[in-house]
Amino acid sequence: MAKDFDPSGRVPDYYVNAGTSSFTQFLTHASPELLPGRRPLPPGLSADIAPHGTTIVAIATAEGVVMGGDRRATMGNLIASRDIEKVHPADSYSLIGIAGTAGIGIELMRLFQVELEHYEKIEGTMLSTDGKANRLAGMVRGNLGAAMQGLAVVPLFAGYDLSPADPAKVGRIFSFDVAGGLYEETGYDAIGSGSLFAKSALKKKYRAGLSTDDAVRLAVEALYDAADDDTATGGPDLTRKIFPVVMSATANGTHRLTEAEIIAVAEQVVAGRMENPGG
Amino acid sequence: MAMQFYASPEQVQRDRSEYARKGIARGRSAVVLTYEGGILLVAENITTLRKISEIYDKIGFAAVGRYNEFESLRRAGIRMADVNGYSYDRRDVTGRFLANAYTQTLGAIFTETQKPYEVEICIAQVGSSPETDELYRITYDGSVMDEPGFMAMGGQAEAISSVLREGHDPAADLPTALALAAKALGSVGGENGATRKLDSKQLEVAVLDRRRKGRAFRRIHGQPLITLLEGLETVAEKDLGDVDAAPPPPAADGKPTVSAASEQDVASKPAATDKPEAADPAEPADGVNGDGS
């Protein structure tokens, strides 16, 4: 940072020049130490040194998208956290969920949020939904080195598309692989350790053109199924009142289900399973 | 070899000041004032190039003078704010920090370079009440002033400022504050000293809404601005471009749709027709360049 202390007191040139509208690209000049993916790692696998976030599901609806995540983070066989939040708004119309090494995932998510807001402020317009997804893919790619040493993180990105190519498809879902591969998903997707079970549940129950309320219910059902078969995924915790984080993105912006709303849905789901454990 | 003539430092400073002042005086003006619900930023601007911008959650930016110069300062402000907010916390980004950075930068440019920046900028930070609002005026030579509730910048700022001084009331509502701002900006520049009546096409308007959590900056244009200027009624908060309000319907012509956070539209009006008309090609888009507009 020494170069920031120009004796004249002037803001360094790279702040003032036209340069880039991307925050991450700007940070490579201003404060490269704040960027993930450039820290030297000791050789060997380091998978179990930090908590891992688990299952996230996303469902496209008639009005946009719904994304839900369980609240558990694990370290090996231990539960590292019961109430971690892994689903967040990326900006006014899109959501991001993270699975994998929690610390790196949270950093990635924060950086992505600033990236979108920064572009919006500098340019005066929002990035397109595809533009946002591409940007996120690039950021995941930057983590490839750490991923190969066991510190992988994979996000799930979903948003309400303000200018969709197909007006019937306003809800868009994008998944990623550790190498930064970007895949647009149709209808629904899940990531994380319980994703296999969540996806199977969604496959049987998903119908195109669901309402947001039905999709919220379906997301909680899928997370319940994941928790049923995957030890690293937490189900609704009725004793501690810890419930999945479920958010929606529609024409009205993003909305996180309030405590009361999610309790009502989770209690219905649990009551249903009392009669039929298989859902 | 050419003879270097001696010029005293005083003379050099005076010449630069005069040069900068002349440049600023050529452009159209902007005013910033507090009102009961927040801070109102209004610039006289017929182009789509902007003089008013969001910097951070509670911080707005307004400028007059040469466009390329204040645009680079605006970018620098957003970058500094975002770097700080990212490395610390969103609450740790303050207007004073930005005002300090700007005053240092403009001061250094004024003393070290041949040509000073021909700009005057305002950093506004909205607080929980009009008393806690902060308005900083930073001028071309790096001087900074903490303004008491209202300020005017640009050509004939003194005259505009005196209209504001007479009429400013921190307890006023938004239509009243906007009417005062429009009246102040219209009090100069008419033929033979007559006042002008500015309409929604000639004004760039934004507010920093003190009641809003998170990003407080909202642009007001199109129908809500016309309604507010008529002064008959106030516009519902949700129509002031809430991030939670309905976004503009996708533009039919494939133009990128603007975000609700930085722009706003009422759902009933398509985005494309709501925007101020792009400057007529026959008419130079010099409204914000400080070069004769």
UniProtKB/TrEMBL annotation, chain A:
It is found in: Cytoplasm. Gene3D superfamilies: Glutamine Phosphoribosylpyrophosphate, subunit 1, domain 1 (3.60.20.10). Pathway: Protein degradation; proteasomal Pup-dependent pathway. Pfam families: Proteasome. The active site is at 54 (nucleophile). The keyword Transcription regulation does not apply. Component of the proteasome core, a large protease complex with broad specificity involved in protein degradation. This is Proteasome subunit beta. It comes from Paractinoplanes aksuensis. The gene is prcB.
TrEMBL record, chain B:
Residues 239-293 are annotated as: Disordered. One of its GO terms (cellular component) is proteasome complex. InterPro entries: Ntn_hydrolases_N, Proteasome_alpha, Proteasome_alpha-type, Proteasome_asu_bac, Proteasome_sua/b. Pathway: Protein degradation; proteasomal Pup-dependent pathway. Keywords: Cytoplasm, Hydrolase, Proteasome. It comes from the Bacteria. It is found in: Cytoplasm. The keyword Zinc does not apply. Its main location: cytoplasm. GO terms for molecular function: hydrolase activity. The keyword Metal-binding does not apply. Component of the proteasome core, a large protease complex with broad specificity involved in protein degradation. This is Proteasome subunit alpha. It comes from Paractinoplanes aksuensis. The gene is prcA.
